[in-house]
Amino acid sequence: MPSLRGRLFKFLLQNRHLLQFQWRKKIIDWSQYEAILNFRKEVEAGAERFGKVPKNIVISPVNIDGLYAEWLIPEGVAKDKIMLYFHGGGYVCGSCKSHRSITSKFVTGSQTGALLFDYRLAPEHPYPAGLEDALKAYRWLLDGGIEPSSIVFVGDSGGGGLLLGTLLALRDQDTPLPAAAVACSPVTDLKCAGESHRTKAKLCLSPEGMALAIARHYAGDKGYEIPYASPLYAELHGLPPLLIYVGEDEILRDDSTQFAAKAKAEGVDVTLRVGEGMFHCYPATAPLFPEATEAMKEICTFIRRMLKIESNLKD
Questions:
Q1: Residue of 150, 250, 256, 291 with catalytic role
Q2: Which keywords appear in this protein's UniProt record, sorted alphabetically (predicted)?
């Protein structure tokens, strides 16, 4: 059973409309471009209010052939071992700014630096724009002399789906793959065919109708079974070790469970964690309640192990 603090935090998130003195959740027409723009503003504003980065992490802007990115490097840590972070936002929102604070948690816990990048967003830039930008960021790291074995991919939500699609594209292009990857609540099925999209709809924090609308914005008329956009429909052999976290009470649960089962059947080293009673991307809320803290601890330990980094942190 989830901890009391975990259940309380989830209850507050599920009923956050009440804190705004709204008796019912707002129904949003996600097919409307204006709704996407408003959502972006809300995400960025939230990051402005609550997204704090520890003072010991140095943020350095980078221009990767027109692609904005940022180094997040703890003081005294070299750039020879790096996580490439794929921010979430359902392919329609999110940025370096919105995800600095979240990325810094992985940076602090794993004692390694990160490169966070702004990939192009839908609907202005549908698939494959984001994938092209992700490939550009990874190859920039390789061209800079960082070995593939010294890179781990980390991503959440839509960023987790983009991460998996990027791994597949790199594999198919015979580009050396990173050492490992961590995906939190990744989007793997733009068809939204998993049962959890229906059975968990009332419990999920995701606004009603958002998943299918975002799929349309991202994939457009290209189809929802394109392997690099919907990794669940790809051949999954040859991928590096994967650690996948997902909440039991979110619509994307089956995106993770089905992907993990298929990848394992095709010989991939996959570790799947389904958080009992947990919600979308719950590890990113550490250290607010025990389940999130334990998840973040395991993820960071996994990153250190894959990159062969000795830890000076106390368990």
A1: 250
A2: Hydrolase
**Count of other CB atoms within 10 angstroms of residue 1:** 7
- 157 carries an active-site annotation: yes
Annotated catalytic, 99?
no
Q: Which domains does the chain have, with CATH numbers?
A: 4-307 (3.40.50.1820)
Cite the DSSP H helix spans in the chain.
4-14, 16-19, 33-50, 96-110, 129-143, 158-172, 196-199, 210-219, 253-265, 290-307
Catalytic residue among 104, 157, 185, 256: 157
Could you count the other beta carbons within 10 Å of the beta carbon of residue 143?
Answer: 9
Reference 48, options 89, 118, 95; nearest CA is 95
Closest CA to 250 of 286, 283, 205: 205
Cβ-based neighbour number of residue 261 at 10 Å:
12
**What gap in Å lies between CA 271 and CA 240, rounded to an integer?**
12
| Helix, strand, coil abundance in the chain, percent, nearest 5 | 45, 15, 40
Is 280 among the catalytic positions? yes
DSSP 3-state of 183? strand
Degrees to nearest 5, angle at CA 60 with 57 and 62: 145
83 SS3 class: strand
- pTM for this one? 0.95
In angstroms, the CA 47 to CA 132 distance is: 26
Going residue by residue through the chain (315 aa), what tens digit of pLDDT does each one get?
Answer: 889 999 998 888 887 654 555 556 666 788 889 989 998 998 899 887 877 899 999 999 999 999 999 999 999 999 999 999 999 999 999 999 999 999 999 999 999 999 999 999 999 999 999 999 999 999 999 999 999 999 999 999 999 999 999 999 999 999 999 999 999 999 999 999 999 999 999 899 888 888 999 999 999 888 899 999 999 999 999 999 999 999 999 999 999 999 999 999 999 999 999 999 999 999 999 999 999 999 999 999 999 999 998 765 444
